Inverse folding.
């Protein structure tokens, strides 16, 4: 037990240091933890989640190329037109726009472009910007589990299918989208009454009392409405949306996917003793493409869905480069591609570290948590939430903890029901989207409190996650 505690401490220390340094450090410092567990404590290295990572790379590349084409500007322009047309409803419309932008492109970092517009609309209408800004930031993040091309959703589908809970990406988002929308709207309703109106807020009135402060708050107008969107950029959006639609359709009707002939091991077949005296398993023979009677056979196998997703997304990226003048160098320099690749490195390191630790101590973990989880299945939600607070990545939470949850015997529908709890990194306001929102709000009403945890995102985040989880759990129980 002492060894278990020491190695758990190493894992938690690596996660803490990684989150403290941020960005690529999450994956790199996790690698330091792996090195300690493997070389110093002799644990067998886990397996990096390569299938999930490849899909994320394809999705990030496709979304990055869309941004490079100018298509992202068109989507934001459409959202801005909606917000400025109905400024009195900004507290409800702002989280809806950030939510659906994330659903479309698979990353919440698209909100950076939209947040200055939300702030500007609120200030010009006399609405306290904290109200729409905080809940819009939360909405952009919880929407990750609602996007068919996000790391979290792809990982949940891939791992669940491998663990005996067959579920497609459309089935996942059909549960998470309505659940999270309900949670966000209730959080927006609470936000609509939070704090003092700008004309009654003494701090805000003091800020605009002199000409310099007044010009700082009211003199700047952030807008994309006057930007001319080229036809090629709109064409890129159509290609991108078509790719997502094709993925959704094929996930529903996988029987139309192409099949190829391959060698597979016969179920129940025994190991084969070679002439040299060495023993070879049926799976090893199948991997080598060797057909042996009673051990391996040739079989038509339908292409896996995770490969289909990769093919379609990189094809869409290629079409946007060829026909929409999307510059690859510009895509690589964009914040969508960069933030996505940072997430890839984080998931790579954290999931590998988690697989190494959990793989070595699964028996101990079952002894510690098995009874509790068996009687109170919902407690897995706390595992998801706490882990998310530590590592700031929903994809990493899913990739790291979902195999463990299945190994503990938790049914797939329960895990689907608590999926919103994978978003917990609003709790400590150190995530880039929250920090950016605080800095963008020129009124100073969106803030990090004196005691850190009393910040603008805490209550909207808690309301969104708790309500979304309750609804998601009910829907998952009803349908699965």
């Amino acid at each position: 037990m002492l060894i278990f505690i020491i190695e758990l401490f190493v894992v938690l220390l690596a996660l803490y240091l990684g989150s403290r340094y941020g960005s690529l450090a999450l994956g790199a410092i996790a690698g330091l933890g792996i090195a300690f567990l493997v070389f110093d404590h002799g644990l067998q290295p886990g397996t990096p989640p390569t299938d999930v990572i490849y899909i994320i790379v394809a999705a990030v590349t496709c979304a990055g190329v869309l941004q490079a084409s100018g298509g992202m500007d068109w989507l934001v322009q459409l959202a801005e037109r909606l917000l400025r047309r109905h400024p009195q409803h900004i507290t409800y419309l702002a989280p809806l726009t950030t939510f659906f932008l994330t659903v479309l492109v698979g990353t919440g970092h698209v909100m950076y472009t939209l947040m200055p517009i939300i702030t500007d609309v609120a200030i010009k209408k006399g609405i306290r910007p904290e109200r729409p800004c905080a809940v819009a930031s939360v909405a952009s993040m919880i929407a990750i589990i609602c996007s068919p091309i996000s790391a979290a959703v792809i990982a949940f589908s891939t791992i669940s299918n491998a663990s005996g809970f067959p579920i497609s990406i459309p089935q996942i988002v059909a549960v998470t989208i309505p659940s999270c929308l309900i949670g966000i709207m209730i959080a927006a309703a609470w936000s609509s009454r939070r704090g003092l109106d700008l004309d009654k807020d003494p701090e805000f009135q003091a800020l605009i009392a002199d000409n310099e402060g007044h010009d700082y708050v009211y003199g700047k107008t952030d807008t994309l409405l006057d930007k001319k969107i080229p036809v090629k950029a709109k064409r890129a959006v159509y290609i991108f949306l078509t790719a997502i639609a094709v993925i959704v359709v094929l996930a529903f009707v996988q029987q139309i996917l192409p099949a190829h002939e391959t060698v597979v091991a016969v179920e129940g077949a025994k190991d084969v003793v070679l002439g040299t005296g060495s023993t070879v398993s049926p799976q090893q023979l199948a991997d080598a493409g060797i057909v042996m009677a009673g051990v391996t056979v040739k079989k038509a196998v339908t292409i896996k869905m995770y490969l289909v997703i990769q093919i379609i997304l990189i094809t869409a990226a290629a079409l946007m480069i060829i026909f929409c003048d999307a510059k690859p160098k510009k895509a690589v320099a964009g914040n969508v591609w960069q933030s996505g690749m940072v997430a890839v490195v984080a998931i790579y390191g954290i999931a590998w570290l988690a697989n190494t630790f959990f793989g070595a101590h699964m028996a101990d973990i079952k002894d510690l948590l098995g009874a509790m989880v068996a009687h109170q299945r919902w407690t897995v939600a706390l595992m998801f939430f706490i882990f998310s607070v530590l590592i700031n990545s929903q994809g990493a939470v899913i990739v790291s903890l979902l195999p463990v949850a299945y190994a503990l015997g938790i049914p797939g529908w329960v895990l689907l029901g608590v999926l919103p709890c994978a978003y917990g990194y609003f709790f400590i306001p150190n995530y880039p989207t929250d920090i950016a929102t605080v800095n963008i709000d020129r009124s100073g009403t969106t803030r990090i409190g004196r005691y850190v945890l009393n910040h603008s995102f805490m209550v909207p985040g808690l309301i969104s996650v708790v309500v979304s989880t309750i609804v998601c759990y009910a829907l998952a129980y009803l349908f699965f």
Summary: The chain is about 65% helix and 5% strand. Residues 335-375 form the longest helix (41 residues).
